[in-house]
Amino acid sequence: MKPAYFISDLHLSEKHPELTALLLRFLRSAAAGQARAVYILGDLFDFWVGDDEVSELNTSVAREIRKLSDKGVAVFFVRGNRDFLIGRDFCRQAGMTLLPDYSVLDLFGCKTLICHGDTLCTDDKAYLRFRKIVHRKRLQKLFLMLPLKWRTRLAAKIRRVSKMEKQVKPADIMDVNAVFTARQVRAFGAERLIHGHTHREHIHHENGFTRIVLGDWHGSYASILRVDGDGAVFVPLEKC
After folding, report:
1. What b/e readout covers 161-190, taking b as 16+ CB neighbours within 10 angstroms?
2. What is the CATH number of the domain that holds 69?
3. Residue 43, annotated as binding a ligand
4. Is 124 annotated as a binding residue?
5. Which site in 41, 68, 172, 209 is 20 to 30 Å from 96, CA atoms measured?
6. What percentage of residues in the chain have a pLDDT greater than 90?
7. Is 197 annotated as a binding residue?
């Protein structure tokens, strides 16, 4: 059977056109008959201020994902902490299926839990408080009513503050909490967990299950996770 592919944390933006080009090449290769499904586990974009924002970046990505979907490759999307405002309009335009924060898949006989990963970082109390606030539907509705220019400025300010806070946070609290993560995997009855968010690419074998952490695409290295009947393996992508 054809494999499924997983990616996350591309953080696409106009500042890094090489990452967009790399994604488009990957999507075209998947469309060439090499995939049964593609799962995007959040932070596809560096930020998202609403489906009504029309840009060359957003349009080109949606167009290429739609081409992939139209060729019979199912594309699924889980919102991340940077693009949690991606809505059904953009997903419809791109031909993607929007998934909830946690989903369980039967991947070649292995029950697999997938998520972005930010909700597993329970030691980062400040972030979880912030997440709870910005995920309030009423607040999101009010934010999306603001002029696009205002939303963009607010998002840029929040990113700057987040970057400064990240520089002084202990590295361990920005990783997943092992006890909570194991509890979630057991609660969903899964044998394997795939997530992103921490950018710490690795395949862990722990507490009776496999935890696979997807990497980001910045720096000199980028990869996709290939899952098939033989298991899961990271496949490096050639960066031009």
Report:
1. eeeeeeeeeeeeebbbbeeebbebbeebeb
2. 3.60.21.10
3. yes
4. yes
5. 209
6. 87
7. yes
Taking residues 6-30, what's their average pLDDT? Answer: 95
Q: What whole-number distance in Å separates Cα of residue 88 and Cα of residue 83?
A: 13
Handedness of CA 56, 58, 59, 60 (dihedral sign): positive
Any binding-site annotation on 162? yes
130-to-62, 164, 189, 194 alpha-carbon distances in Å: 29, 15, 29, 24
Q: 169: annotated binding-site residue?
A: yes
What are the residues facing 192 on neighbouring strands? 112, 210
User: What does the pLDDT read at residue 206?
Assistant: 84
**For 51-55, 145-149, 164-168, 222-226, which range has the lowest pLDDT when averaged over its residues?**
164-168
Domain ranges, residue 68 = 4-236
122: pLDDT strictly greater than 90: yes
Q: Has 199 been labeled as part of a binding site?
A: yes
106 is in an annotated binding site: no
Q: Domain tally for the chain?
A: 1
Tell whether residue 81 is among the known ligand binding residues: yes
- From the list 19, 81, 82, the residue with the least C-alpha distance to 47 is 82
Q: How far is CA 177 from CA 51, 123, 125, 180, 199, in A?
A: 33, 6, 12, 5, 15
